[in-house]
């Protein structure tokens, strides 16, 4: 059982702390909450803790080990601006996250697996979203809530993000080029982002990989996407792999069809 102060502005709970909140708390002053590998008695304790922080602006959740209790994080926070979820929980039961945050501007999801779900019910003010290292998450629940995002960073394969949504506000896209068939996800994003102005492709691995990922070919768009015809102005590709045929095809296609392009930059490792 935990007793909380009503004057706290920042609360950090770490490691073997057991959080047992059988009834709603009242922490009106709390603005920042860190939950780092803590133990919750049940999902009700999570709900009571977060709902008792009506003015919460920054929430960081980190889960990294198997727990006996299946937890659903219900996050209802009307003034929440930043939400970071890093979840490497290993388990065979379903749990996950249900998020309602009307003021949310910055979202990071990392490591959330297919054993859980992530439902973002309403985030109309989302500006930046980082989606990395997820594994077959219920993406239809995520992509619908990202339609207002302006600057996403995606580290996914097309199988992990089979989007059919239209991102009308998206102007700045950063994608990692290390997942299988990432180039086909790029095609999906071209077709779904009519106002895209800035594109950055990168592979942040320190060691330069001589051989590319196996499997799949790039599916060139049947028609030139609107963003290439009318809006794309800057294209940056770092750690470009000149020996990978699909990457050469992607680069050639963009340079050929981006009619408003003003700046293009490629950087790679030297040839051995």
UniProtKB/TrEMBL annotation:
- Superkingdom of source: Eukaryota
What InterPro entries does this protein map onto?
Answer: FBD (IPR006566), FBL13/AtMIF1-like (IPR050232), LRR_dom_sf (IPR032675), LRR_PRU1-like (IPR013101)
Locate the FBD domain: which residues? 226-272
Return any one Pfam family short name.
FBD
Q: What is this protein called?
A: F-box/FBD/LRR-repeat protein At3g52680
Source organism per entry reads Camelina sativa
